[in-house]
Amino acid sequence: MGLLEEQSTVNEVSDQDANGTKEIAPFFIESISFVGFLAAVAILILIVLYINWLLRMPYVSVGLTVAPTAACLGMCLVIIKCTCVLEKYWGLTQTSLANGHPWRAYLGIAMFFTMFTAIMLSAIWSKYNDNSLVNALMEFYGGSQSDPYYFGGNIDIPHYFNIARFGYVNEGTALDYNIVFFPMYPLLLYIGFIIYPNFVIVGMTISTIASVGSCAILYKLERERCGHEEGIRTVKYLVLFPMAYYLFTPMSESLFLLLSLSVFYCLTHRQYILLFIFALCAGLTRSIGIVITVPILIEAGRILFFERDKITAVKTAICACAPLLSLSIYMLINYIVFGNPLIFLEIQQTHWSQSISFFWNTAHYLTEYSYNYIQSGDIGSLMGYSGSGVVSLAMALALIIVGSKRLPPTYTAYATAYFVMGFGATWLLSGPRYTLCLFPIAMSMSWLTRNKWVDRILTGIYVTWLIIYTHYYITGVWDIY
């Protein structure tokens, strides 16, 4: 294992700048042999062919999806194993897809998302018993489209669709409420719609690609800090989070996760142009993107006071202004459409009863709601809303505390600022979704599960929890937000 990691390190594209700073190849680009490259291409082609087959099937239930999905993933594992054997047989360096090599982790991520996506699609297909998968997805995610000003569908999803379709408008209809949603994800929906005219398919594609990219970057960040095994566990506790199905849904969670992780990657490796771009895009994706300013400023302070490098510190501080620029752009859109740069705050207050508060207030009313739901026997609201909110809040806070002992201060500061802003709401509807995007807690979980038995037990709990919530999310029995 040590030899393989050493070979992987030697093959990694890196050099030293004048200050001795290690420059790493962008994102998840890693060395791979020609045989390994062909194997990776073969696996990706196999996955594409399988998804294409699944989409062309007239009807597939969840149960009938398990066997073909297992067969597809089994063949992917055969290719990986045969690649290692073939390299050894030919006398080549065995780093391409051997245990511990990054490409094996990246292909594993792709295979997991293939399996989970297939199960999600077939479950939604089964619910509506429709001959068309696209129609089933439209009904589940988009609601009725008989009226162009529709507001049906699942939670915030139709808002994004309507922004992509009509833009931000001020015409005295329900479409006015869309102004509270930030523009980056709807912009990508609009661009994707030009290529393939279906917002649901485009949205799920964007979210899935962003999720795969997020996992690849998260793995690379943790592998560079703590090694391959901890990197794998970190990704595992992200994708097995009980409400990880939001990584596939046409919403902005996956995109924000990708952009925020990209910010930390570029901050770590001091790629300032990309850092500014990703920080700007993250700020345009969700309102909570403003907290990305905090870790960038902390890193700028370290460079200034510890490294005594004023020029680099100034570059970093400039990048910290990107989320503030994003907020300015968004407020300008508010002003152009409504003549009021802060109209989004008013609409959140009047329509969603949402305003800035303290997280301890959130803990109070979620606990009170949970008690009332238990008294009234409303299990759906308890498990889907208040109870899951209490657990998410407690879990996030506890793991931030744990992470403060081992994570760099930039991660802890980001998690803390994210928690204070995300959970400080007068009506927190989406605590688990907010927790899903708080990637430092997955890093804390990885550190807590270094013992294999602890890891196995918590993995089993996560998987069980994920299966239960995915089932009730799709069936709609629980009011999951």
Radius of gyration: 23 Å
Structural class: mainly alpha
Low-pLDDT stretches: 1-26
Helix content, binned percent: over 70%
Can you characterise this structure?
This protein is mainly alpha-helical. Among the domains are: 1-131, no CATH class; 346-475, no CATH class. Helices cover 70% and strands 1% of the residues. The chain is built from 21 helices and two strands. It has a two-stranded antiparallel sheet with strand order 1-2. The protein is globular and about 70 Å long. Mean pLDDT is 83; it is low at 1-26.
List the SSEs and their pairings.
Layout: H1 2-11, E1 14-16, E2 22-24, H2 34-56, H3 62-90, H4 102-128, H5 133-142, H6 157-166, H7 184-195, H8 199-226, H9 228-239, H10 253-269, H11 272-283, H12 293-305, H13 310-320, H14 322-338, H15 343-352, H16 359-376, H17 379-403, H18 409-423, H19 431-436, H20 440-448, H21 452-475
Antiparallel strand pairs: 1-2
Helix pairs in contact: 2-3, 2-4, 3-4, 4-5, 4-8, 4-21, 6-7, 7-8, 8-9, 8-10, 9-20, 10-11, 11-13, 11-14, 12-13, 12-18, 16-17, 17-18, 17-20
